[in-house]
Amino acid sequence: MCTPRTRQLVISLFLLAQLIFNAESLDLNNLIQSGNYSQAIDNLQKLAHNSNNEEKLSSIYHQLGEIYYQYTHNYSKAIITYDQILRLNPTKFPTEDLYLAILKKGDAYCRINLYDKAIESYQYLVSLNDQTHFAYKTGCQKINNIQNAIKKLNQLQIIIANYPNTSIAIEAKFQISELYRQQSQLNQPHKAIELYE
User: Fold this and answer.
1) 180 in Cβ contact with 192 (< 8 Å)
2) Handedness of CA 99, 102, 105, 109 (dihedral sign)
3) 105, 53, 100: which is closest to 75 by C-alpha?
4) What's the number of CA atoms in the CB half-sphere (13 Å) around residue 75?
5) Cα torsion at 134, 76, 85, 39 (round to 10°)?
6) Can you give the pTM of this predicted structure?
7) pLDDT tens-digit profile of 141-191?
8) Helices (H), the chain
9) Taking the C-alpha atoms of 156, 160, 161 and 166 in order, what is their torsion angle to the nearest 10 degrees?
10) Which positions ≥6 away from 116 have C-beta within 8 Å?
């Protein structure tokens, strides 16, 4: 049986841990907002190294993956980070975290022009759920979007090859840039910008 003093000590330790975690989160937000991504990455890696709580690790790896994906555009490291989530015990953290890691991994593969790998990632998500589940439908939609965009890209490239230096070719290049621009399709905004220029 727990004495009132022991209970008070446990509550105090819990509150202290929460304060430290909140301070770390605030510090992390400040680092990201100031563009100090390498320090934010170092801080998160230290947190991950010092934690054996799989739910907390999932959260840390998601934050790391987001920095690599969204801010530093190091998609290979983002993929490695999302893989770390997939290696955790899925019963120890929210299922949504697992689904998000799979989706983000597929998105990162798209950014580096590895559409087959992206489709594999989305197919894995589909395989985890039944046909009525939102994650199943999302995975199927992503696969379908990529396959349709690649088919359209190939058709547009044929038009450009058959009608070089014409207004039709210019229109086809614009449509290709739109395919690259949209996250729901080829998800390579850097290529879209090159084409727009």
Assistant:
1) yes
2) negative
3) 105
4) 16
5) -120
6) 0.81
7) 999 999 999 999 999 999 999 999 999 999 999 999 999 998 888 988 988
8) 4-33, 37-49, 54-66, 75-86, 95-111, 115-127, 134-162, 167-181, 189-196
9) 150
10) none
